UniProtKB/TrEMBL annotation:
Presence of the UniProt keyword ATP-binding in the record: yes
Annotated binding of ATP, by residue: 614
Sequence ranges assigned to domain Aminoacyl-tRNA synthetase class Ia in this UniProt record: 13-215, 448-649
Name of the protein this chain belongs to: Leucine--tRNA ligase
Pfam families associated with the record: Anticodon_1 (PF08264), tRNA-synt_1 (PF00133), tRNA-synt_1_2 (PF13603)
Motif ('HIGH' region): 42-52
PANTHER family: LEUCINE--TRNA LIGASE, MITOCHONDRIAL, LEUCYL-TRNA SYNTHETASE
Regions that span the bilayer: none
Species whose genome carries this gene: Humibacter ginsenosidimutans
Keyword list, A-Z: Aminoacyl-tRNA synthetase, ATP-binding, Cytoplasm, Ligase, Nucleotide-binding, Protein biosynthesis
All residue ranges annotated as the Leucyl-tRNA synthetase editing domain in the record: 222-434
Renumbered ranges of motif 'KMSKS' region: 611-615
Lineage: Bacteria, Bacillati, Actinomycetota, Actinomycetes, Micrococcales
Length: 847
């Protein structure tokens, strides 16, 4: 009498699977259609944690499911193994980041093997291997050739404590994510990828993903890209040859522009005060310092008191010739639009707050009380006479007094030839007029910035550029890739504002590939988001040392059918992958423009309502859980906890309960006594119905990520099977075997070890994972029944269950065939039969 022992089952099947390698995808001549299921690859910062268990568990359900549906499924694994945590750990302990990284990879790998996702291990990759990062460099050069990788002096986030630039995502509430120091802005020469060139496509192509990506991710992407549509307008400046361009979304309000504001930290502001008198300059310099110590979030905040300085310069309104003062104020950002605005205080709240703070004029140019076509005006009445006051007669409330800007639609006033136009018409007409006079044009802007990809760090991909005094920037010739990272030994990795690689003199000193003269390597390394932007393609040719990826393999497998990962990557990683995919499309390397056809964001594993962390001391360790409950119970618990998108509170679930369920399922398979060649179409019909319902429903449920419902249905089937085994029909019933086999096949999605062991108990060879899904028998799928009533002369004589779709003829026939009805009728003759399918048959007899 065997007992369910997860550890023994794991130890039994792991070597069998490693021998069989059932998940390799490279068999020649494999004619099956293909699916590509991908989990976001892990960062090797320690052992795997519960979040990995969850995400990889879910990905594996999908991968195993498609395999059972007859697909050749690619489900690869690798490591995102460059990056700051390794370097910081190395600095702290005085060790090599390489050793730390690869030790962690080895640990995670051991845990993965035991957890047993259906990976194709033959494609394993590590982004920190030269075999991988060589192709990062290749990609960089492709972008460089296209003008999409460039170097510029720009304002960057700078942590004064860590002495390094920070990516936008490393700045949290204006502070350094790691040390908490206030982040400063600094002008540095850095490498960028020109993502903004792709702003329109990155935004518009999101429409293709509607319904296949979580709505909130689509929204986050849209907001991050932040396309705004408006116009550039040129303002002539007194005492300056060149006009100043401003960007506005409201060219219709141009007659209401009563002053201009430039960003204090823009080149333009510096130039405008260059010749100003000393008092003005001094005030400006003070204000600039204050601005530089202010975060963008503060600068953009609407409820902050407005500050600024007058620059003692004037611009000319291009439409009405009015002379307007130019101010510098921090609510205008240097790196958006042109870093300068026309201020229209009557219709823009920020401008109004500023005008009221400094006593600048406010002029209403859109009458927001006037009805515009299509809008139904609310007509107020005069409180004294009770008569309607026509909206045209109501003067708009004066923003200068109310402090509330008029931002709504309306009709133009105080605007010369544009008076009477609605806002939208006026926008078009003003742009036309500006265009005709060559002083403005339609334009748009993105919140999205170019991607700053250089890091002054050691543990990353060296940028394949050589700086030569004669030739300038020279790309490293492709046949000299990879530019290998020098050994960390002897290098000071501590952040000090310049790249540690620069100190590796022997490494950095090279001959210029163009002129042969003395030159130096670029010492920056790439943001690791570059590595992860295209790794999904590398899996397709992971062992190919002649190219980044084989276009023929890409054609076969990509794009990814199902991507699984955390919502923390909803913006940057996905945006960068989408960008690089579009670039590769434009370069002719791939034939699609979106990398991930559908996306599942799993929730977090939390504890007692709170996120788990080492510092809080509430960490549930994956390794402990694995040891205590086994891989299968863990997977089932995660799948059963609720919809996969929701957080899982580990305090509310029971891995022990899952283990009990698994033991019950396992027991059922071991109790089956009929042989595999039973007559399938026999046995307990009620049980067969439950079996076939599950076979029919599970595909739709899995495809809509309702994994928890499938587990619940499995539990139901196990219980129903147990009942029949313990009843008179017993373990030899064919329906019992059918049910047990179905449980095994479906359980393979959630609990592969248990399922494999059950499969063997049922008399089959490994592996159950290679078995195809069984088709439901439609005749066993009758829906719920309803009760039909038969009356004879108004008295109920019989009731029986029928299908809700029963036809009138069929129902009448059933009624006429009923024994009790026969008895009630006796010798009387039927006069009329009224049928109201499916619920009622009324029989009237002749009197
Ligand atoms: C005049 C105006 C009148 C504006 C009005 C708005 C309302 P989005 O939608 O975010 O693109 N703006 C332009 N460049 C700016 C900068 N560098 N820093 C801060 N603000 C800037 O917003 C575009 C609007 O934000 C522009 O339209 C401009 O103000 C301001 F009734 O121009 B508007
Ligand atoms: Zn040269």
């Amino acid at each position: 009498d065997a007992r369910y022992d997860f550890a023994a089952i794991q130890a039994k099947w792991l070597p069998v699977w490693e021998e069989l390698q059932p998940f390799r995808t490279d068999a020649p001549g494999d004619k099956r259609p293909r699916k590509y299921v991908l989990d976001m690859f892990p960062y090797p910062s320690g052992d795997l944690h519960m979040g990995h268990a969850e995400a990889f568990g879910f990905g594996d359900i999908v991968a195993r499911y498609w395999r059972q549906q007859g697909f050749n499924v690619l489900h690869p694994i690798g490591w995102d193994s460059f990056g700051l945590p390794a370097e910081n750990a190395a600095i702290k302990r005085g060790i090599d980041p390489r050793g730390w990284t690869y030790d962690n990879i080895a640990q995670q790998k051991r845990s993965f093997r035991l957890y047993a996702p259906s990976f194709d291990w033959s494609r394993e990759l590590h982004t920190s291997d030269p075999e991988y990062y060589k192709w990062n460099q290749w990609l960089f050069l492709k972008l460089y050739e296209k003008g999409l990788a460039y170097r510029k002096a720009g304002t960057v986030n700078w942590c004064p404590n860590d002495q390094t630039v920070l990516a936008n995502e490393q700045v949290v509430d204006g502070r350094c994510e790691r040390c908490g120091f206030l982040v400063e802005k600094k002008k540095l020469t850095q490498w960028y990828f020109r993502v903004t060139d792709y702003g329109d496509r990155l935004l518009d192509d999101l429409n293709q993903l509607e319904g296949a990506w979580p709505p909130r991710v689509l929204t986050m992407q849209r907001n991050w890209i932040g396309r705004s549509v408006g116009a550039d307008v040129e303002f002539a400046i007194e005492g300056r040859d060149e006009p100043i361009s401003i960007y506005t979304t409201r060219p219709d309000t141009l007659y209401g522009a009563t002053f201009m504001v430039v960003a204090p930290d823009s080149d333009l502001a510096a130039e405008l005060v260059a010749d100003a008198d000393p008092a003005v300059r001094e005030r400006f310099d003070d204000y600039l310092k204050q601005t530089q110590a202010t975060t963008d979030i503060e600068r953009l905040s609407s409820d902050r008191e407005k500050t600024g300085v007058f620059l003692d310069r004037y611009a000319v309104n291009p439409l009405n010739g009015e002379r307007i003062p130019i101010w510098a104020a921090d609510y205008v950002l240097a790196d958006y639009g042109h870093g300068a605005i026309m201020a229209v205080p009557a219709h823009d709240q920020r401008d109004l707050d500023f005008a009221r703070a400094f006593g600048l004029p406010v002029r209403v140019v859109v009458d927001t009380n006037a009805p515009v076509t299509g809008a139904i005006p609310i007509i107020p009445t005069d409180p004294e006479t009770g008569e309607a006051v026509l909206p045209d007669d109501l003067p708009p409330l004066d923003p200068a007094e109310t402090g509330v800007a008029l931002t709504g639609d309306g009709r133009l006033i105080n605007s010369g030839p544009f008076n009477g136009l609605s806002k939208n018409n006026a926008i078009h007409r003003v742009i036309e007029a500006l265009d005709a006079a060559s002083i403005g044009r339609a334009s748009r802007n993105f919140r999205l910035r170019d991607w700053l990809i250089s890091r002054q760090r050691y543990w990353g991909t060296p940028i394949p550029i050589i700086h030569c005094e004669t030739c300038g920037e020279v790309p490293v010739p492709e046949d000299q890739l990879p530019v290998r990272l020098p050994d960390a030994e002897g290098l000071d990795l501590k952040p000090k504002g310049t790249s540690p690689l620069g100190a590796a003199t022997e490494w950095a000193t090279v001959d210029c590939p163009k002129c042969g003269g003395a030159a130096t390597r670029d010492s920056d390394t790439m943001d690791t988001f570059v590595d992860s932007s295209w790794y999904y393609l590398r899996y397709l040719s992971a062992n190919d040392d002649t190219q980044a990826f084989d276009p023929a393999e890409v054609e076969k497998w990509a794009p990814v059918d199902q991507y699984v990962g955390g919502v923390e990557h909803a913006i940057l990683h996905l945006l960068y992958s989408r960008f690089i995919t579009k670039v590769l499309f434009d370069l002719g390397y791939v034939s699609f423009t979106e990398p991930f056809t559908s996306l599942l964001n799993q929730g977090q594993v939390i504890l007692n309502g709170a996120a788990m962390s080492k510092s809080k001391g509430n960490l549930v360790e994956f390794a402990d859980e694995l040891r205590q409950h086994g891989a299968d119970a863990l997977r089932v618990t995660l799948a059963f906890a609720g919809p996969p998108e929701d957080d899982i509170d580990w305090a509310d679930v029971s891995a022990a309960g899952s283990a009990k369920f698994l033991a019950r399922a396992w027991r059922v398979a071991h109790d089956v006594t009929s042989s595999p060649d039973v007559e399938w179409k026999t046995g307990d019909t009620a049980l067969r119905r439950v079996t076939h319902r599950l076979l029919a429903d599970a595909p739709g449920l899995i495809e809509s990520y309702k994994f928890n419902v499938v587990v619940a249905r499995l539990m139901e089937l196990v219980n129903a099977t147990r009942k029949v085994i313990d009843s008179g029909a017993g373990p030899q019933d064919a329906a019992v075997r059918e049910a047990a086999e179905t449980v095994t096949l479906v359980l393979n999605l959630f609990a592969p070890y248990t399922a494999e062991d059950m499969w063997q108990a049922l008399g089959y060879e490994p592996t159950v994972a290679a078995q195809t899904w069984r088709k439901a028998d439609p005749s066993l799928l009758v829906e719920d029944s309803v009760t039909a009533i038969v009356q004879v002369d108004g008295k109920v004589r019989d009731r029986f269950e029928v299908s809700p779709h029963v036809g009138a003829d069929e129902l009448e026939a059933l009624a006429r065939a009923s024994e009790p009805v026969h008895r009630a009728l006796g010798a009387r003759e039927i006069a009329a039969v009224i049928v109201r399918a499916p619920r009622l048959v009324n029989i009237a007899t002749k009197k």
